[in-house]
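Sequence and fold
=================
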Amino acid sequence: MKRILIVDDAATVRLFNRQILESAGYSVDEAVNGIEALEKALQATYDLYLVDVNMPMQDGFSFLRQLRAQAIAQAPAVMITTEAGDHDRQQAYESGANYYLTKPIKPDALLHLVRLLAGDAA
């Protein structure tokens, strides 16, 4: 079973994404900021990261930069945010994101992208 880490400070967003992904057969873990996410990533292997930009303690950009610097198996990361500017998109890719989505996200679109990036596309 593929494992996904949702990194977002909003409980409603984590719950929304968790329900979509678990109903599709994915194992889901959650983190409320980049610091917690990095701790989890160093303890377990994930197949995909869904990462918010704006979070307390450590934002998504910093988390991805630190994650990509680790000597661990790397997985794709999707930056999911309300920030729609070109500068934010560029910063996400420079930080190590593989894809950039702007909220709100339709469940079908999220699931399609997750299947593609996690290697489950039909």
Observations:
- The CA atoms of residues 12 and 81 lie 14 Å apart.
